[in-house]
Each structure stands twice: as structure tokens, then as C-alpha cells.
Amino acid sequence: MIRFYNRQTKSISGCILLGRRHNSSEPRRESEILDTTKRISKIMVSSPAVVLNTALDQCGMRVSPEIVEDVLKRFENAGILAYRFFKWAEKQRNYEHSIRAYHTMIESLAKTRQYQIMWDLVNAMRNKRMLNVETFCIMMRKYARAQKVEEAVYTFNVMEKYDVQPNLAALNGLLSALCKSKNVRNAQEIFDSMKDRFIPDSKTYSILLEGWGKDPNLPKAREIFREMIDVGCNPDIVTYGIMVDILCKAGRVDEALGIVKGMDYRVCQPTSFIYSVLVHTYGVENRIEDAVDTFMEMVRNGIHADAALYNALIGAFCKANKFKNVYRVLDEMDSKSVKPNSRTCNIVLNGLIGRGKTDEAFKVFRRMIKVCEPDADTYTMMIKMFCERGELEMAFKVWKYMKLKQFIPSMHTFSVLINGLCDKGNVTEACVLLEEMLEKGIQPSNVTFERLRRLLLKEGREDVIKFLQEKMNLLVKEPLFD
User: What is the dotted CATH code of the domain comprising 341-403?
Assistant: First the structure.
């Protein structure tokens, strides 16, 4: 157990500390799957593309749907590398890809904008009669996230061509994809043109409500909320949560609190999410006492705090520069068997780094990685911190630990370290990293590549620029549609 505060402290909620967690032994099958997944991941990380298939063949390991799904999930940030494994796996005896494996692969390819290969997989799924609504919802989400609105709408419209009947779930998927990518006006137009074809439900209205909240457009959000009630579609707890969130982000936390108090508790009782929104907003507004009071009210109402709510309270204390209280909350999470997540870690690290407490941030990082798995943001944050301090050796220590954990860095993680090397004039090592990035099927941002290109030109190394450019060209070009 990791303790963050040495002295005897009272828990934030004033409750008696509960007993320690008990570690349950994993079933043997799960252990075998995990072991095989790790061995395959190690081969994939260490083997060049040209010998990957041979290395996998020689390992002598048999794959199952669970193993393939786990490996693909681990390499979701490296579309092409994941695809090489995917193609190798489908050739193995007595093995067939599951729908989940196809979906994970489609997400991975779309993330790295390998759209042609993505559609090839869709066609393969059609031939095997494996396509469903979720397949198209995944593609719509990824297209919308890349701001490819026309392609997202096209994906919805082409469903029937692929023998999948569009329904309300598909429409909700399209609207959600557009709203989450800040294209709520397009979503509203589509909704207005299709609400006679598909009868909207509370989820449909909640999606649009959230979209206008993110726009942000409070009057339009109110209009959607009123329309929902006028057509006889009762708001559910999700709708209330979204409305509270919108009001809080608009700086109307007291009005949001009025909605919470006006809810019919027999139908909808406030959830930990609603309380977390209120606590977070009070924290942003430096109303730390209100944040704690709201937390205490939730406890009195018998609602158990989850990681998201604790994260909101931790964020409030970070904003107020009360890091002793932060560590008390972390200790309470441990006593209540609420496991911190990567978001917990990131909030604390961001708060410490923002206050210039970088040494303490590194100590917290080393402690937190023992109780929760870091994500791409965690690694990026730490690597960036050391790069900005000019401590590239420490940045590479974090990098090596990340690779030891077989975590595939994101485009942003690569970019931070490449830029750190460029700042120090270490162009050669920056080129090595960029080549590794391309090898994993991750395309660098224009800003990162252009910066490295200018430094190479300055050193008269046009041959290296040509080599890297050819590597980039090897990545499959993205088509408009299939």
C-alpha cells in the first residue's frame, strides 16, 4: 500500500477507515492469456517490420480470440504494427478473428488515418456476415473526430449497401460522433431532417443537449431541453447530469444546484457524476469550502464516492494549492477500496508541475505507478516536464520505463521527446525516434516534422530528409471513401 500522508489524518468524509483490500488470485486461464500477450507484445516491440512474421512464427505460441484482442488493444496507437499482427494471426491454424478483434483493428487504423485498410476490413466482415451497427458507429466516431464530417455522414448513409439496417441506435451514434467533435450544427440539421423517420428517445435529446453545451450555446441547450419535454420525452438521470454540467460550465453553478434540488428523488436521485460536476466547478471557482460541503452532502445522502468524484475533489484541492489535503484524499481512496486511475495521477501531476513542484511530481509519479496504470497523457506529461527542465536523461528514463511496460507511445508522446531532442540540438537521435514512430504506423504532426526538417537542412543533411520523407510516403494514403 502506498501512503501519501505520514501523520494520522481524518478521512475527508469523516467516516471510519475500512479494512484493507484482499488480492484475489487470477484464474489460471487469465494468467496464461496475460503471459502469452506479454510475450507477443515483447516480440512486436523488438522486431523490425521485415522480420516480424518470422519472429512470431518462431515463438511457437498459439493464439486465441482473447489473446489477439488483448494484443490489438495494447497496440491501438500503432495502427500499421497492429495490422501486421492482425494479418499474421488470421493465418494461424484453428483461429478466426472475432467481431471485437475487427472492431479494435478498425479503431486503430482509423486513429492513424489508414482509411483504405479500414474499409478493406469492413468488406471482409461483410463477406463473413459479421457487420453490425456498432461497426459503423465506430467509423462514424473516428471520421468525426478527424473532422471528416462528410465521410461520417456517408458511413451512415451507406449502411444499407452493406446489408445493415440503419436504426435509432445508428442515428444516435452519428449524432454523438458529430456532437463530440464539435459539429453540433451538422448534428442538429441531420436530427431535424430525420426525426420523422426515427422517433427520438431521451438518449437522442441528451446527445444534442450535450453538443450544444459544448458549443457552448446555453439558449440552444435550453431550447432542446424544452422540446424534449414538449414532445413527451421525460428527462432521465443522464439528461439531468448533462444539464447540470452545462450550467456549471456556463458559470451558473447555483442554478445547477437548483435543478439538483428540484429533481424528483423518487424517479431520479442525483448520482456521483452530478456531485462530481458540482465539486469540480466549485474547485474551478476556488470555492473550496463549497466543494467539500457538497462532497459531505453526498456522503450524508448515502451515495458512495467513485474515482471520478474523488478526482474532482483532488482537482479542487490542487487548484487551491492544498496538496496535504490531496494526499489525505488519496489515503481515503485507499481505505475505501476506491482504486485511483490514470486520471487521478494526471490531475495530481498537472497540479504539481503547474506550481513548479517538479521534484515532488516525480516522487508522486513513482508512487502512483505502483497503484494505477499510467496512460499516454501521464507519460507525455512527465517526459515534457523533464525536457523543459533540460534533463533529457530523465526523460529517457521515463521513456524506457514506458517501453518496458510495453506501452505504445502516442503521437504526442513521440513529439514531446523529439522536440526535446531538437531543443538540445540532438538531431540524429530525434531522427531515430521519428523513424521508430513511422515504423509503428504513427504519422508525425506537420509542426514536428517541419522543425526537424529545418534542422537537418541547416546541417546539410538532405539525404536524411529524403529518407524520412520516403518512410512517410510508405504509410497508406487516405482515400475519401471506400
Answer: 1.25.40
